């Protein structure tokens, strides 16, 4: 998806589809602010980003994105309960040390959460392991010794964790390169995005 020569990654394009106009959005690990800038321009959202990198924080500011510089591992204590309509964590979940904590915090600060992550269940990954090597692919381009990805998971792994945490999955989208995958998504997709909400009580 493109606007003003800005092309959103496939998962970000789907995430933008899931966000209604004029909502309050928190983007965790927001990078250079591309998603929030896009949502601000096309859907008039009130957006806040959280990012640790000096360079990316500067890029956010240059895009006119409101950004807070902080390590996500420190939690989201600066935000109130249900302060946002949607909280996004795109392609960052797999690098978090305390996965359950950040997901619970997402459910606390917003009505709905959205995550995307590389699918470790993609079939060439299994083939690579059978051949004695950790997989290196487009969605996971790092060697085992320098990867930031410390908690890899499959689609079923995430869905089991979501159920354990008391979440209801509202929508799922899976991709391979620029194509959406629906048939045998657990094996054929390289990237997954989920929209979820906490179950009442």
TrEMBL record:
<protein>
    <submittedName>
        <fullName>Methionine biosynthesis protein MetW</fullName>
    </submittedName>
</protein>
<dbReference type="GO" id="GO:0008168">
    <property type="term" value="F:methyltransferase activity"/>
</dbReference>
<dbReference type="InterPro" id="IPR029063">
    <property type="entry name" value="SAM-dependent_MTases_sf"/>
</dbReference>
<dbReference type="Pfam" id="PF07021">
    <property type="entry name" value="MetW"/>
</dbReference>
<dbReference type="InterPro" id="IPR050508">
    <property type="entry name" value="Methyltransf_Superfamily"/>
</dbReference>
<dbReference type="InterPro" id="IPR010743">
    <property type="entry name" value="Methionine_synth_MetW"/>
</dbReference>
